[in-house]
Design brief:
GO terms for molecular function: imidazolonepropionase activity; iron ion binding; zinc ion binding. The protein has 402 residues and is an alpha/beta fold. Helices cover 34% and strands 23% of the residues. Bound molecules: N-(iminomethyl)-L-glutamic acid (NIG).
Length: 402
Amino acid sequence: MTSLLITNIGELMTQDREHRVLADAAVVLEGERISWIGAASAAPAADEEYDAGGRACLPGWVDSHTHLVFAGDRTAEFEARMAGQSYAAGGISVTVDATRRATDEELAQLVTARAAEAAAGGTTYLETKTGYGLDVDEEARGARIAAKVADEVTFLGAHLVPDGWAADDYVQLVTGAMLSAVRPYAQWADVFCETGAFTPDQSREVLRACRDAGLGLRVHGNQLGPGGGVQLAVELEAASVDHVNYLGRPDVDALAGSWSSWDSGAGRRGTVATCLPACDLSTRQPLAPARKLLDAGVEIAIASNCNPGTSYTTSMGFCVATAVLQMGLTVHQAVRAATFGGALALHREQGNDDDGARAVGSLAVGHRADLQLFSAPSATHLAYRPGMQLTHAVWRKGIRVA
Ligand code: NIG
């Protein structure tokens, strides 16, 4: 197994439970794992050496919410929105039509290109969802293609009730034949619990069936207005509730309560509140109250929500900068949410699989060797120099990918 010493790191943010920030640091990668971290002056010898030139080093981004399986784009809808129209879930059907028209090869090529774009921007762990198929064969096709590219696949058959269907009949399809067809490719299930999509009762039915089939749970909730998504996510002990733009005090309290018995040893976690800053800007929704959530004791994640309707970007750097500049997070809080927070939202923040490290989103001995170097001496430059391409080098599972 070859080892690589990355030395002369200006600032290294571990993002582990101790949140260490090391100056003049070094890290050793051995195969797919990190085998050593510490002061550059104390670093052990390795087979190969890479001089970071004083650059900052962070864990690779963990993007825990994307919708990469789609064809077409929605430029016209975006333009109308910028001219004052509000976002409505109905736009999803435009993408469903375009996606159904794409061949398997076309769709796979589009998804692969988007994942490569994310990797080039420092994303080393990626979740993506189905949800632009909305019939049995198309959802299964989307999940099959996603599974070849993404680290984690989420079944989002309950994204919109397709034209011509009664909602209750469609819920039966989602929880029956569609779930069976998608199940071999997915680890998670999600539902768009919102006015215009699925009610809390319909969402509960979908999520319970998916949980019974062995899938972990996630919820799109409280995006377009106050609603029951957050409460449902906490009730069902979902790993994450995403968007969280419209929260009342009971929602924040419920999320905070879910973290009161967090016990990493026992693998007991609460429900992560996943904030999607690029989506909030593109839809002109009120920004998710990230700071308030943190202050209440809620664990948050930041994700790109790359999709053609509300957030056509894979740039986690942009999301982090927005969280700092617009949502009132410190750089450290925003970086943590985009690394460790994403890992928590995917239950990947600790442990090992039979065949390798399970822990991503933080830099610690034994964790997966997923890290990035910036063309800057500190992570602060992400927000201090917004919009600049600062990714210098990226390693995923110990292999240089950008
Ligand atoms: O997460 N909110 C629902 N789903 C996507 C948007 C889907 C679309 O408009 O195509 C989201 O924002």
